[in-house]
Amino acid sequence: MSRIRIIRRTYYNLFSHLYDAFINLHARRDAGDTRNFLVKMARIERKPNPSILDICCGTGAVITAFAIQYSESFTVGYDFSRGMLLKVREKSGSGTIILIEGDAAVLPFIDESFDVITCSHALYELKTSARQAALKEMKRVIRSSGVVLIMEHEKPRHPLVRILFNLRMLTMGSADAREFVKGGLEPFQRIFSEVSLYHSPSGKSKLFVCRK
Predict the structure, then answer these.
(1) pTM, 2 dp
(2) CATH superfamily membership of 1-25+48-102
């Protein structure tokens, strides 16, 4: 493992203790609406026993929402930070979720394993090469009839949150991160045959709906 990767993992292990507080500051009452919007856009109400993978799952807000709404689903939370994964277990509804520690650019699953893949507010922190590799892996493990849902930030309006957001991007590589956040469909259209853009009810996030 490279020194930079070790530093990043250590950072996220430590940040896991503050992560939910940071999200609450940024999202406030809109956090639940954003998660519900993401779950709704999966459109799996009529699918029996759906398989769902949340990549870069963090402390598990999205994957626990799926697990609670779809109690018969096969749910997997995947993150490279053990600290984040440990926080998932503290959440209601996490008991049936399988948690796996690993790299988003190298998924340990066979082709076409999942009906739904989500990645929420995480890809902007990856370098271009790692981001493209992660998207290719998502395409590989999503089923032909499945959907990949990628949610990213709109630029925060709250002054304090905007400062924290920009500082966080600086630690990850500011120029590349900002370029991706400002970008539209093109990074996803390089990988997927069909890509649509939606905006969350709060206006704080944008959702890319990708099909194989």
Answers:
(1) 0.84
(2) Vaccinia Virus protein VP39 (3.40.50.150)
Q: Which of 63, 71, 210 has its CA nearest to residue 136?
A: 210
User: How far apart are alpha carbons 93 and 69 in whole angstroms?
Assistant: 9
**Quick check: 153 and 161 in contact, CB under 8 A?**
no
| Angle at which helices 128-141 and 174-182 cross, to 10° | 50
**Residue 69, token pair as written in the block:** 């709404």
Alpha helices in 79-127 (DSSP H): 82-88
The fold of the 108-212 domain, in CATH, is Rossmann fold (3.40.50)
> CA end-to-end span of the chain, whole Å?
31
**At how many degrees (to 10) do helices 30-41 and 61-69 cross?**
60
pLDDT per position as a tens digit, 97-140: 999 999 999 999 999 999 999 999 888 878 888 899 999 999 99
